[in-house]
Amino acid sequence: MRNFQKTAIAAAVAHVAVLSSAAAWAQTSADTTANPAPTVVHISGQRAALQSAQQLKKNADEVVDSIVAEDIGKLPDRSVTEVLQRIAGVTIDRNMAGDPNRQSVEGSGVSVRGLTYVRSEVNGRDAFSAGGGRSLGFADVAPELMAGVDVYKNPSAEQVEGAVAGLVNLRTAMPFDYKGFKGTLGVSESYSTLRKGAPSPTGTILLSNRWKSDTFGEFGALVDFAHAKSPTRSDGVGVDPYFPHVNSTDPAKYDRSKTQWIPLGVGYRSQDFERTRRGDYAAFQWRPNRDFTAALTYFKTKYKEDLDEHVVTSSEDKWYQQVASKDSVFDSNGVFQSGTISNPTYGGSPFNSSQRINTRESSTRDTSLNLQWRVTPDLTWTNDFQHVHSTTEGFDADVSTGFIMPNQQMDMRGNVPQITLGSPAYMADPNNYYWAYTQEALDHATATQKAWKTDFKYAFDHPVLRDVRFGFRMANRDGENHKAQKFYNWQAITFPWMEGWQIPHVARLGDPRFAGGASLQKIDNFFDGKYNIPPMLFANESVVRGFPDEWSKIHAYHDVLCKEQGSTCDPWKAATFNDPAATNTQSEKTRAAYTQLRFGFDDLKYPIDGNIGIRYVKTTGAGSGYVAYSPAGVTIPTDAPVTGVDTLIYIKPFAEAQSYNNSYHNWLPSLNLRLKYSDELQFRFAVAKAMARPDFNQLQVQTTLNSAPNQTTIRDSSGKTTNVIFNGTTLTGTSDGNAMLKPTTSTNVDLTAEWYFAKAGSLTFSAFNKDLKDIIITQDYSYKATDVNGKPQTFVVTGPVNGAKGYARGFEIAHQQYYDFVPDWLKGIGTQASWTYVSSERTLNKPVFNAWCSGNDASSNYNLSINGCDTDGRAFGKTPLQGLSRHTINFAVMYEQHGLSMRLAYNWRSRYLLGVNQWGSRGNNGLNTNPAADPAKYLIPTTNNDQAFGLPLYQAPYGQLDGSIFYDFTDKFRVGLEATNLTNSYTRQIMEQHAGSFTRQVFMSGPRYTLLAQYSF
């Protein structure tokens, strides 16, 4: 069915292209007939924007696709990210960046031709956000400021390096773009069908003018301000991994074909998300004479996001005690389909009900000065100065209660899993809940960049040579990243496993001593009313946001019970920025020089033009951070014989500052050729070497070292310990980054055929191939430290290295046309369509595949992290490149006539890998079904967390229909309605297991509508 869907959509796109092509030929032929009837078509709005974008693509020196705003502030979507997905070969993720467990309603993670090595610019200058990345968060940029978006698929030598996948340039308006005074005012209000009643006003204003002075020349000034709120809601239903319930733990009776696969549990989450975007832009231009122009621009984008989430999820770890009811339904592979799951041994399954708050404030400010001087009629000299300052600050907090769920009723047979978690009476009883845990993470980062580039262009009066360009660029970038600690500060309040040795009982919410801080809360209209989730007890929002004071009150409940038990318990400590091991500073200097020659052979039967150039780049980086070691406690038993204590390694804890310097250089040649078969038909060939430096978070100088004693405990048949054997200490570590990483490089080849049969009509084809080297993966290296006896010891540290190569290759077909030959009542209708196919492969320099998985989830378990492991110990083998869909489809129907402008746009992409060993689909309590395993572990459910599993997690195919309708009451005033996700499409995640492909999560956000009014003056 899935293959049929892809084939059908692709065929539909091809069919539209062929019919449109035939119509275009018919239109061309009709022009030769005698006395053709005149056709009057009003050219404005979206049609004019398409014409402008087409001219940019047709006349560009490189392979480029563009989207041009109908007017300033009139990009066709509500965010820059959503705009980009309309371009052939560009895809966006539907999950929050780095977190597949949460949906991003507006999208995130831009990829070009399946690769994420995307460079971002604003007006041709470097643009980035603080926090470790090299690109700008496109969803955080106010689209109201944009005049257009260009995506360069294979940049040339004169463009700043860093675009292996592509270069995204955001263009703003300049005052000299307009003949005189220009003013626009826009307001809008959005409505989410799922998150009802949340106000979301947007306002934007642009003012621009230019003046002439006989003494000082011509001046221009433009200011543009935008402020927007975007409240959304996303509901999700989740299913945990399926575990193998074998027919027998006796190897002689074990039959794999009789295994029953039962999910660990189910849950749900509902998140209210609000992003407030603010954009400030100002531009000033001065032209004292026709040979000199100066431009000063100020661009600032600032956003604040706030996520408020309620999550109910299983925390069961003894899956082998779970049983399915007698009326449960299984498929032919033994996979659970519907029924009731319970844990009679434990009296139910442990669950958590959490309220999570995640806030972030970020800002990027760019101030730039551009000076262009035409020294002579043939020589132009341009200088560009830029200063960028970016900051970000985040707070992620989670406060959870716990309870025992008697049973879970579920049905997996529909599009969305149907679940029932407890009766309303049970879920409303505070005596069934206890305070469980808190966790928090805090961070803040700052990055600055100073850049200068100078460019020369010398034009030739020559039949072949057009001009030669050369220039230099210098950029210094510095960044500081601070975390309260390296990982989440997870700390228990009370759990049943603490009972008897630390506390007498858990802190139940029904106990008046522990009742403060939580309340009965209901998620209204969950999944658009398709579920009836009963009210449940969650921590109050004021408590979660009241960190750290309110948290201290909750953790004091634990202290009360500790005192009651007579135990000595350490008080709760909030995360602070006092941990030196969680601080990292980096600096980078780049020096670049290029030369590029443009040429053209106009006298050939089929004229050829193009450019050839080379860019040299030297990169020098430095970083400082800490390497920290905290030894694990070792308990020497006193009630049994012990041997091998002398083999244990003892190293004192330490946190030492460390710094690194790295330097490399790259030569980046490029060639772009264009052959004009006619004024309408042309072909391109482009080949270039490209590079993408590691993200700054991959260059962090932060290493955490760990140790664990190798201990074997021997027990007799009654369970009494008879002997304890120590055999040395395992020394491992993890590194957040590697300051010695090299850039990923690629050789990019493009071949295109472009037919421009009308001003807003084209049919284009592009074949491409990108060969990648030095792809960054995770591997191990050695770190030396001295033990208490002065003897050097070696830690095996896992961190990022340049350890793979690969490719991404495929083709793009794109078509657009307005159908002017149709009857009068249809005039003004047009279509856009594109289909992108990408095939990819990644090959490790050191293959790590093993058919069976063993060990825990230590970072050195590469088979787990790269290939993935099932809950029964079987590995999955080679997985595709992350984030890459083989097929991407865009199709839009447009109409524009008599002041009415409408658009329906559909975007679809096939499934893609979100990652392997992701949170929510991983764990340490799998079952070892490897026949060659240690008999003590074979078919025995682990209680030591030493059988790790991590499933490949895929995003299922997804398509979304958006639309808009505008009416121009006058040339200056228009109103409109924009709709997003008209068909209420669900996003679905699939976890791959050997027994089948199972739903991991299903999200819905509902349709959203925006009413707009725009006035020009």
The counted number of beta strands is 48
| Biggest sheet overview | 30 strands, mixed
Q: Which overall shape is indicated by the principal axes computed on the Cα atoms? A: globular
* Percent range of helical residues: under 10%
Q: Span between N and C termini?
A: 53 Å
Number of helices: 7
Assess the beta-strand content as a share of residues: over 45%
What are the segments in which pLDDT stays under 50 over at least 5 consecutive residues? 1-43
Helix-strand category = mainly beta
> From the alpha-carbon coordinates, what is the Rg to the nearest angstrom?
31 Å
Q: What integer is the average pLDDT? A: 89
Subcellular location: Cell outer membrane
Signal peptide: 1-26
Protein name: TonB-dependent receptor
Domain TonB-dependent receptor plug: 59-166
List the helices and strands and how they pair.
Elements (H helix, E strand, L loop, with lengths): L1 H29 L14 H15 L4 E5 L11 H5 L5 E7 L2 E14 L5 E5 L2 E2 L21 E5 L13 E6 L10 E11 L8 E13 L3 E23 L2 E4 L14 E4 L2 E24 L2 E23 L8 E2 L4 E2 L5 E7 L6 E26 L4 E27 L1 E5 L6 E3 L3 H5 L4 E27 L5 E19 L7 E2 L25 E4 L14 E4 L1 H5 L3 H17 L17 E19 L6 E22 L12 E2 L10 E23 L4 E12 L9 E14 L5 E15 L8 E15 L2 E26 L5 E27 L10 E16 L17 H6 L19 E11 L2 E10 L2 E5 L5 E2 L25 E2 L1 E4 L2 E11 L4 E8 L6 E7 L2 E9 L3 E9 L1
Parallel strand pairs: 4-7, 28-32, 29-33, 33-36
Antiparallel strand pairs: 1-6, 2-3, 4-5, 6-7, 8-9, 8-48, 9-10, 10-13, 10-47, 11-12, 13-14, 14-18, 15-17, 16-17, 17-20, 18-19, 19-22, 20-21, 22-23, 22-24, 23-27, 25-26, 27-28, 28-30, 30-31, 31-34, 32-33, 34-35, 35-36, 36-37, 37-38, 38-39, 39-44, 40-43, 41-42, 43-46, 44-45, 45-48, 46-47
